[in-house]
Specification:
0% strand, 2 domains
Length: 101
């Protein structure tokens, strides 16, 4: 970890490489259970559910907030990342999941 408390690029890359090395859903779940607290996992799952509902386009932000328990601030933030952020991580994963169905 970097001295200022922020994660270094190298540490981030090693974590990403570790995730790429997992081969099954069970392995991913086991790693995430070890890596994250239950509340962190709930937050990840909540944000991804918000992203899926936003991508579906059938519900308002308020309805998504009520359905998921996420704050409207979280719904708005996820929507912004889906629309305009350069990383497009949500988009990549959502599109790949659609391709598998």
């Amino acid at each position: 970890m970097a001295i200022d408390g922020k994660i270094s690029k190298q540490d981030s890359d090693v974590l990403a490489q570790a995730l790429l090395g997992l081969e099954t859903i069970e392995e991913v779940k086991a790693f995430l259970d070890d890596l994250c607290t239950p509340s962190e996992l709930r937050a990840f799952a909540e944000r991804f559910k918000v992203a899926r509902l936003l991508d579906d386009g059938q519900l308002s932000y308020r309805d998504i907030s009520e359905r998921t328990g996420a704050s409207t601030t979280t719904v708005t933030r996820v929507a912004r990342f889906l629309r305009e952020m350069p990383h497009q991580g949500y988009r990549l994963v959502l599109d790949r999941l659609k391709d598998k169905t």
